[in-house]
Amino acid sequence: MVRLNRITTRTGDDGNTNLGDGTRVPKHHLRVEAYGTVDELSSVLGLALTHGLESPLSEWVREIQNDLFDVGADLCLPGPEGDKLRLTLEYSLRLERRLEEINARLPALKSFVLPGGKPAAAWLHLARTVCRRAERLVTHLAESERQSGGPVLNPELVRYLNRLSDLCFVLSRAANGDGAQDVLWQPGQGRAGGSEGA
Predict the structure, then answer these.
(1) Residue 42 placed within a domain
(2) CA-CA distance, 121 to 130, in Å (whole number)?
(3) pLDDT tens digits, the chain, 198 residues: what are they?
(4) What is the Cα Rg of the chain in Å?
(5) Which of 44, 63, 67, 117 could be stapled to 121 by a disulfide with Cβ–Cβ 3.0 to 4.6 Å?
(6) Is 17 within a domain?
């Protein structure tokens, strides 16, 4: 069980922080960047929740926020499996089931979707892009540690973040009235002679 007695510890005033195993690393360490971005993603999802996501979408997003703490716990603890909290395949399979359920009711797309529409949908689009950044950082971390002979990163982390970015996209469409309020890309609209200003 997590117990936080003090929030301000002053141990990070020198620009370093502790990983979950006590190892001191710079606050800009790639592992810290990765789990920090996962934390940022959870915060963006929290903003989506404040903008009227209806059930069951709201419950699913809260479930994802809880998952993201598990992702962060996995990332902050380098080293062998042991008894540490690690993501398993079941996390990604649950996201896939949500994806299929939502996507089944959405109309097929004939163009790319621009971020926008309802506020909750716009926040979910932002969550998608932050999730992709987290995924890039985790794959960079995995490659960096592989090259240096460091601890092997749990491959389920990449799988989960990859599925989650897809899920954020379909959640945004669901939040936009099941796609009815999606804003679609119009290729070449800004070219001379286009519809703008006509």
Answers:
(1) yes
(2) 14
(3) 555 555 556 655 667 767 666 677 666 778 889 989 999 999 999 999 999 898 999 999 999 999 999 999 999 888 665 457 789 999 999 999 999 999 999 999 888 999 999 999 999 999 999 999 999 999 999 999 888 888 888 999 999 999 999 999 999 999 999 999 998 998 998 887 655 544
(4) 19
(5) 117
(6) no
Rounded distance between C-alpha atoms, residue 77 and residue 87, angstroms: 12
Q: What SS3 string covers 158-193?
A: HHHHHHHHHHHHHHHHHHCCCCCCCEECCCCCCCCC
d(CA 20, CA 43): 21
Question: Do residues 172 and 89 lie in contact, with contact meaning Cβ atoms separated by under 8 Å?
Answer: no
CATH of the domain at 75: 1.20.1200.10
**Token pair 């998608």 in the structure block, residue:** 128
